[in-house]
Amino acid sequence: MDIVRQDFARNRFRRRLLIGVVTAVALTAFAYGVSRLEPAAPAVERASVFIDEVERGPLIRQVRGLGSLIPEEIVLIPAVVEGRVERRLALPGTPVEPDTVLLLLSNPQLEQQALDAESALRAAEAQYGALEATLETQRLDQATLAAQVESEQLQAQAQYDADRQLQENGLIDSLTVMKSRVAAEQLKIRLGLERDRVAVRESSKKAQLAAQEALIDQARSMLNLRRSQVTKLEVRAGIRGVLQSLDVEAGQQVAPGAALARVSDPRRLKAELRVPETQAKDVLIGQSARIDTRNGVIEGVVSRIDPAVENATVKVDVRLLGDLPPGARPDLTVDGAIELERLEETLQIGRPVSGQPESLISLFRLEPGGETAVRVPVRLGAASIQDIEVREGLQEGDRVILSDMSDWSAYERIRLR
User: Which CATH number is 57's domain given?
Assistant: First the structure.
């Protein structure tokens, strides 16, 4: 006969309860342990990041700016006279010589004034010839009269001498001698006056001819001016170089002083760079620079810094020291690097994507073996175009990732594969 055990069901319930409690405790402990574990380091393709090694050596601080080559001097050709543009004889970019005609202007009134000035000169020269003939005739008449008086005076003097001799011999009376003497003296005085008139005539002739010569010179100057103005209707380059621009069109009326064209010397160029205003504060006149024309590099020196800021940049002129490479021409786009200072024996790396001078950033430093990298804080210092100074956080020989790692900003460690 089977005996029913009353405690069997109760014991089985206790075992199941104990197993459930143990299982719950184990699961809780496991969950707690898992929560305390660090997340697995993500894997990053080694080929997708740029790795650089910390080195020690000289660091050249530089700033870079884009710009273009421009002529050191551009000659502005203005209109000297008023006129209407008849023809454009050259196009921008054309090599020109000093006597190359760029434009033809027309001004009928000016051309008529030149003809009038030529006629005025011929009239003045004709008047000079007529006046000279008249004055010479008057001078000769006066000289003839003076010669006639001189002849009469000589005759009177001879008569007086003869009468005095006769008086000494008692042949004539003293009254006759006195009359002869008075006549001789009067003619002598008259001869002096006539000679003075001849001298005055000569001086007057010179003065009147000089006045007429002044009128001729004035007329000649006016003619030269008018002719010069007419020649200015042919607008010439004036220098050897390249025509930069023509600022007028055919048929356009221009006034004196109006800009007609611009000519530059392509052999004398300078670089005009645009440097970010935040970096331009360290640029000084006299600093060395290198200008890359894509076809060669030219050494230069900073010659001018624009005091004004335009579009967050500052214009910096660089005077070129070497020979221009082939293809260098005005308006050619160039890339310039200006040397600010040279730091010797400086710990440095290539510039990270987010690396700014005098800043604190974090970089992934490769661990020995190069399979993993950990995030470390790095304090940066002075920077050049490609490299930057390391002040704290890294040592010589360390290898770091310089690429943009913002996608892994939540991780302190990564794996490289």
Answer: 2.40.30.170
Mean pLDDT by 10 residues, the chain (417 residues): 52 64 63 51 85 89 89 89 92 90 92 91 90 82 83 84 81 82 84 83 84 91 91 90 90 92 88 90 91 90 92 92 84 90 87 84 89 91 85 90 86 87
Q: Do 406 and 379 reside in the same domain of the chain?
A: yes
Tell me the two tokens of residue 187: 């003619």
Contact 260, 80 (CB under 8 A): no
Q: Which two tokens stand for residue 306?
A: 């624009």
- Range(s) of the domain holding residue 245: 74-106+233-264
Which amino acid appears at position 294 of this protein? R
Decide if 121 is inside a domain: yes
The pLDDT of residue 326: 85
- What lies within 8 Å, CB to CB, of 379 at 6+ separation is 359, 360, 390, 391, 392, 393
Q: Which amino acid is at 105?
A: L
